[in-house]
Amino acid sequence: MKVATIILNRNLPDVTDRLCEHLETYDADLTDIFVVEAGSDEHMLSRHTTWHANWPKACAEGLRYGRGMNYGLSRIWAEGRFTEYDAYFLLTNDTELQARPTVAPLVAELQRHPRVGILSPCSREWGEFQLLQEKPTRYFWFIHNNAYLLRRAFIEDICTPGGTAPHMNFLFDGTNFRGYGQESELIAKAYANNWAAAITSCVTAEENTSHLLHKADLIRTESFEENRRLYIEEGLRWMREKYGFNNRWSLQQYVKNFYELFFAFNPECEPYKI
User: Fold this and answer.
1) Average pLDDT over every residue of 61-77
2) What is the DSSP letter of 273?
3) What's the mean pLDDT in 127-156?
4) Which of 251, 144, 259 is nearest to 192 (CA)?
5) Is the pLDDT of residue 72 over 90?
6) Spatial separation of the C-alpha atoms in residues 4 and 6, rounded to whole Å
7) Helix, strand, coil % (nearest 5) of the chain?
8) Which CATH class is domain 3-272?
9) Measured at the alpha carbon of residue 105, what is the angle toward residues 12 and 23, in degrees to the nearest 5?
10) What is the pLDDT of residues 157-169, one digit of tens each?
11) Integer Rg of the chain from CA
12) pLDDT single digits (tens) 9-49
């Protein structure tokens, strides 16, 4: 399998470059690396920059995860290269990987689980890590989205290419700017279309939250506390307007219903159910 890795940067070129160089050291034979500059200042671009989202609104607000990944995926699609890759590894630049190959073991797990459309390395800080002691890969109805490996066939099943603003709707709903509930919506679409979402402990990945805590001014975003407040407030408004749900629990139950139906239609996957 050939993988395209998409990394988001906003004014943290050194952090992004370290992640790119880590992948080049351990996974260069399996992945091409694409860096999306999410409205970064011209003098703060990564050495590995592929595309610079530098229109005024992107420069002022950034793209955040959903719009940024939409932008990268849609550019590869527009360039006619989408089918060159079997999977897409979507990374935030604050992801920290082990000093060993990451892509190869993830690809091996994806090949072992043909109905998995979303695969994430586990964090040792997640409670899910304790559930993966006997079976290193299991299927979940919620997964944090700092390191998603997405099967191309799954993306093709649900994506909406084209349009005048593909960064808004290629895969993620860009109207949910900060992304509260975004993971759940994607996972619901997976199970509703007969794809599973899985976490594996065959490799781990950690999120370095210190960048948002201590470099908010450099990233040109709100403080950690204000960002979190807006993340929840705006996300709940999006959730209510789109789904009629008043809280995240309702959205989780919505996903869980599709999760249960998946196993009814795919009983051979039952051993991987939580």
Assistant:
1) 97
2) B
3) 96
4) 259
5) yes
6) 6
7) 50, 20, 30
8) alpha beta
9) 25
10) 999 998 888 899 9
11) 18
12) 999 999 999 999 999 999 999 999 999 999 999 999 999 99
Alpha-carbon distance of 236 to 230, in angstroms, equals 10
Q: How many beta carbons lie within 10 A of that of residue 150, not counting itself?
A: 27
Identity of residue 193: N
The structure tokens listed for 16 are 């992004």
56's tokens = 């005024």
Domain chopping of the chain, boundaries: 3-272
- Return d(Cα 274, Cα 58) in angstroms, integer: 40
Note the pLDDT of residue 152.
Answer: 98
Task: Look at the block and give the residue holding tokens 């809280």.
Answer: 247
Give the tokens for residue 41: 């200042």
Rounded to 5°, angle at Cα 92 from 88 and 94: 140
Question: Taking a C-beta distance cutoff of 8 angstroms, is the pair 13, 223 a contact?
Answer: no
Q: Which two tokens stand for residue 22?
A: 């880590």
* Residues with Cβ within 8 Å of residue 125, at least 6 apart in sequence: 206
Q: Inform me whether the pLDDT recorded for 213 exceeds 90.
A: no
End-to-end Cα distance, the chain: 28
User: Which pLDDT value is given to residue 162?
Assistant: 83
Residue 9 main-chain phi, psi, to 5 deg: -130, 140
Which of 238, 215, 236, 212 is closest to 225 using CA atoms?
Answer: 212
